[in-house]
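Give me structure tokens for this 140-residue protein.
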Amino acid sequence: MTTKNKIAFGIYLINAVAMLVVGSVYLFSGEFMPYHSAVIQEEWIDLSEAQKTLYLGMMRTEAAGFLATGTAILILLIIPFRKMQRWAPYAISVIGIVEYLPSAIATYNVAQTTTASPPWIALCMGIGLLIVAIPLSEFD
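Here you go.
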């Protein structure tokens, strides 16, 4: 692998690990995130059991997407990327962007319409890195 390929590999690996970490946090959290509280202006303890069930269900759904995407990227890195198959960087980037983009749009909207500070910038950075990694993947 060339130096550029190694940089692209690292970018993809960072994204995969970040997705797995975010997915795990959302999956195993016993309550919603601080920015969720800021959006609805309620503390977790003040919610009804039905509301808690709904929020945790939505977080688990988001977790599933991040965990599936992170796992898919890892598999694509380990097998086709390392075999230098030309389609692999495109597949990795598209799969990652498909996960990040709706979350980025939703969190940006929350940031613009409330006082909450959701991580929309981090999601946009992930998208940018996935795009940058494509031309770095030089497979002849």
